[in-house]
Amino acid sequence: MNITALRPRLISKLEPIADIFIKAGISPNQISYLSLLFGVFCMIAYAKESFLLGSLLLFVSAVLDLVDGTVARKKGCQTDFGAVIDWVFDKYVDALAILGVGLSGTAILSRFFPVPPEADFAVVAIAIFGSMINTFIKPVVYAEVGFSDRVGGKIHDPLEGVGFFGRPETLIVLIVGASLGYAWLSVLVIAVCTNLSAIQRIIYLSRTLP
Known about the structure:
This protein is an all-alpha fold.
């Protein structure tokens, strides 16, 4: 079970925001681009050690990521391209946010051990890899196994509630941790948990797929 399984409830709470974008005539794809833009701003803020501002920008990006799909469904204008950039931009935002912490030069392992700065950046790289692979498993399953049925506009697959640490958990840990001055700890947690979650999903698939 993970927070992703609660996505439908969360999206329903954001419908008033979606209605604002609909009335303003802003398309779902334009909202996706805005989400990416806020992700870029988040990286810049984190890199400059403005962790509270960066966390606020990342939160806005995450909300926009949820709203774009809601707008598309309510307007009946869902497209394959929109679904693709939604996936791709999500990963760009995750990587940019984590990279921003790395570019800030904040100590991670070096605050406890006499290791060079490269070791800290290695943790950042592992966190980015874990975030990518943990999510990348799902589209691989779609492509290789052939899941295509959609529920509420999203492809439904057996991995929806599998993996204890998905994208929502990653964002929450980074937003809360960085805003409280523990960006280094957030990246360390993400590096460990995303990779463990990916392993958990692989084990699940090994037991359920032929």
